[in-house]
Amino acid sequence: MNAQDCLQTLRDIKDVSFATVDQEGHPQIRIIDVMLVRDGALYFCTSRGKDFHAQLMRDPHVAIVGMTHDFKMVRLAGEVRFVTDDPHAWIDRIFEQNPSMDDVYPGRSRYVLDPFVIDNGCVEIFDLGVSPIYRQTFSLGGAPTHLQGFQITDACIGCGTCARNCPQQCITPGKPFAIAQEHCLHCGLCYENCPVQAIEKRG
Fold first, then answer.
1. Mean pLDDT along residues 64-78
2. What's the pLDDT at 147?
3. Most exposed: 66, 127, 143, 166, by fewest CB within 10 Å?
4. Beta carbons of 74 and 118 less than 8 angstroms apart
5. Greatest distance between any 2 Cα atoms in the chain
6. Nearest in space to 91 (alpha carbons), one of 102, 78, 80
7. Bridge pairing between strands 113-127 and 171-172
8. Which residues contact 11 (CB under 8 A, 6 or more apart)?
9. Are strands 113-127 and 41-47 parallel, antiparallel or unpaired?
10. Would you call 91 exposed, middle or buried from its count of C-beta atoms within 10 A (0-12, 13-18, 19+)?
């Protein structure tokens, strides 16, 4: 699995939850179609009259999430760019790949839509359909990835309390004990139960 695979999964899901922030700083969310994925970038469009368009132009920071039928969740947090390089041509490409759009915006009415791209951010796959669960985070466009979850420090006394409490059994003995980050739920049970506070949040 890599960043491109994650983007393609979002394209396969197609109808994803898409969050922005309005001018009062309040979160706004709606379902948006992922229209194209190519070369490490995700494309979508919206019409210039929508509040969604205004929010994108005001603040480029967005978050997307979608889940497959077999419980693979993909999350993308990044920055949106308006595609200024021949936007009509990009709208035509989007319509070629999404022919049902012709019914919604027939003829030249399609050009009330503007194309947007996300090619910089952080994308994560979180697979709840396997045991133990699996997660991995990738950079998109060289953006820094965000460390999440917990780590066990050298203050660990090796008592094993963390491993016994872990619902995914992803903590192994050692000096110190170690968390397999790709299988961690980030639930915090190890952190809450460590008798010597040897576990800390990452990042």
1. 97
2. 86
3. 143
4. no
5. 70
6. 102
7. unpaired
8. 34, 36, 37, 42
9. antiparallel
10. buried
Distances (CA, A) of 55 to 31, 40, 88: 15, 24, 21
8 Å CB contact between 158 and 186: no
pLDDT score for 138: 95
Distance CA 17, CA 63 (A): 8
Under a CB-based contact definition with an 8 Å cutoff, are residues 10 and 34 in contact? yes
Whether a cis peptide bond, with omega within 30° of 0, leads into 106 is no
Residue appearing with tokens 């990452």: 202
User: Residues 123-149: pLDDT tens digits?
Assistant: 999 999 999 999 999 999 998 888 899
Amino acid in position 51: D
The whole-number pLDDT of residue 150 equals 97
As a whole number, mean pLDDT of residues 116-125 equals 96
Angle formed at CA 174 by CA 133 and CA 152, multiple of 5 degrees? 65
Average pLDDT, the chain: 96
Cα R_g (the chain), whole angstroms: 21
Rounded to 10 degrees, the C-alpha dihedral 171/124/147/189 comes to -40
pTM above 0.70, yes or no: yes
- For position 146, what pLDDT does the model report? 84
Amino acid at 146: H
Q: Measuring CA to CA, which residue among 41, 51, 42, 114 is closest to residue 83?
A: 114
